[in-house]
């Protein structure tokens, strides 16, 4: 449902939803702060979801909708709230491990210092010891002190080993959290945040290291009409299908992302225009060649087509400017009849 809501928020229906949200918040006496607005957008966008049911319960019980309530709901139900809480949990575990290791190291230092003092005393005592009994007592004391230090060192090694494993597990968990935060839940492609970061990094690398960089923007033709005819769930199936085709073509170092509702993007580091156009053409042809069926009813949906535009980065060009030129090429494909690919360089030559 989150993916469907995201699609709604990036289309004309978003304005109607926003008006309903404001009206509902005013009727409930909830201040339209940014956080409250986001919560209520999710509430009205999916009233039967977990967040929707909890807000319905709060309103039915006439409980006040305070800032604390909003913070609690955001932490529990909003995607970034859950992510923040996971990061906080990881931070607490890391703090605990570091405190434990610090305490073990402190004890080891104290033990080593005490052992050093024992050795100093033993050296002095040996000089004055006159008989075998006195020497045996000194050796016995040194043996006991050495064993104590060995036991404490073994304890420290075990503690450090356990902490190393826990930190490694924590690092792996945080890496998974990071991947989840950068992945579009519906299509499993990179999301908008990941795309922006990858594009900035690719532009910086192309600027310093040289080499080509090409950006493509792709859009499903007449997707709103398709959604209105067959419903959002079927529309989601189409989005997943298009993403799967793109994913097969976008092998590293290529990057494919869901840029918006039905809009996708691909980054092609160190590839020339011919290579990029061939890759995009293979995606376009495969998608257009399939006649899709609705899973729930087996109704034939017909073929889905894709329009695309791409631009090769110029020296000194920012990520934003490169994206603008790729978008312009996409719009040219749309205006020319859709189901086609347009190069920004061709547009420049024509101009």
UniProtKB/TrEMBL annotation:
SMART domains listed in its UniProt record: GGDEF (SM00267)
InterPro entries xrefs: Diguanylate_Cyclase (IPR050469), GGDEF_dom (IPR000160), Nucleotide_cyclase (IPR029787), Rev_trsase/Diguanyl_cyclase (IPR043128)
Keyword rRNA-binding among UniProt keywords: no
Alphabetical list of SUPFAM superfamilies matching this protein: Nucleotide cyclase
Catalytic reaction list: 2 GTP = 3',3'-c-di-GMP + 2 diphosphate
Superkingdom of the source species: Bacteria
PROSITE patterns tied to this protein: GGDEF
Keyword terms of this UniProt record: Coiled coil
Coiled coil (residue ranges): 146-180
Stretches assigned to the GGDEF domain: 211-346
EC number: 2.7.7.65
NCBIfam families per the UniProt record, alphabetical: GGDEF
Protein name according to UniProt: diguanylate cyclase
Source species of the chain: Brevundimonas denitrificans
Phylogenetic lineage: Bacteria, Pseudomonadati, Pseudomonadota, Alphaproteobacteria, Caulobacterales
